[in-house]
Design a protein that fits this description.
mainly alpha, 67 residues, elongated, 2 helices
Length: 67
């Protein structure tokens, strides 16, 4: 039980970190400007951060449901 609580706290810490990072990136995010490698790289970074946040939330929910 203690191991699960510790893992939940670690996951929540990572989630908070990546949510803050995504929020910062979204402030200047304007979508993809085609023919711009820089814009496409920023887009990829935002998509990766969104996926990481989503996966962390899913994992936290699944750990919270286990008996």
């Amino acid at each position: 039980m203690e191991g699960r609580d510790q893992k939940l706290r670690a996951l929540q810490g990572r989630l908070d970190y990546y949510q803050q990072k995504l929020e910062t990136k979204m402030k200047r995010y304007r979508g993809v400007i085609h023919e711009s490698a820089s814009s496409e790289m920023k887009h990829q970074e935002v998509m990766v951060l969104r996926a990481m946040v989503s996966d962390l939330k899913r994992e936290i929910l699944s750990l919270g449901k286990d008996p």
